[in-house]
């Protein structure tokens, strides 16, 4: 399970002393948003201490995965900002999302974050806390603002949970719910997600251990393809479905591959990350077009047979979307077992 290694200090009635924002302007939670902590929450998050004595009322989620986890927990009324939307918001979260101010197209600057006067900041990506983004979590802590980071993406690799599991994702959801004093909501979300995982597992073909179809999880790039290695969401989904990740022997989660080695492994199915960045080999269709015209990849069994599965790029990162990727892949695997 995902260990509680997170640290944030949250104070009741926190007011940052900033020129651009003051206590008088701080938002007041609606009655529906009120909740209480049975006791202060103390976590150690990616090597930093995190303590919450009252449920945050002015939270910022710095990117889409963090935003959708909070929205799944019914916390839109506790959010004063979101940013960095990479995909269309999940349909069942769209209405709640539209109530949350968008602070920036990408990451907000540290000045923008401080001006918003938050009492909690959350991201599933280390890059959100870069000096040219929201700023280091330690700096926010000196202002009394707790800043949570996914255990899969700690600043120091030694502090991070090395292997992504669905149990680990569920523990992160529990952590966020506990911080906001709504632990029962986490259990509801997790129950739904686990039910969907069970359905995905049931939809996948049954094969003897190690005999299931092999999957190439193709994330991005054409000259240099980036594929899923060991320990990430694709590896967790492959294990769940009883199939083989073609590059699970790679030590990195997202190693740089080469087409000659991919041709040697000749995967049965190619799972395509559909990315919206607009770069070379980002969209699923651009990947398919490349695979079909490249002299090496056009001969792959999966390409000849058209065995492609498209999943949102963000679902390949640990989030509430990862279950969707498991369902899409599981439903597409019938008839591919060797």
| Overall shape | globular
Counting structural domains, the number is 2
Order of helices and strands: EEEEHEHEHEHEHHEEHEHEHHEH
Give me the CATH superfamily of the largest domain: Nitrogenase molybdenum iron protein domain
Determine the CATH topology of the largest domain.
Answer: Rossmann fold
Mean pLDDT over the full residue set: 88
The radius of gyration is 21 Å
Q: Order of strands side by side in the largest beta sheet?
A: 6-5-4-7-8
The share of residues in extended strands comes to: 15-25%
CATH class of the largest domain: Alpha Beta
Number of strands: 13
Structural class: alpha/beta
Helical content stands at 25-40%
Tally the helices: what do you get?
Answer: 11
Question: What can be said about the biggest beta sheet?
Answer: 5 strands, parallel
Regions with pLDDT < 50 over 5+ consecutive residues?
1-33
Keywords: Signal
Domain Fe/B12 periplasmic-binding: 58-338
InterPro entries: ABC_Transporter_SBP, ABC_transptr_periplasmic_BD
Protein name: Iron complex transport system substrate-binding protein
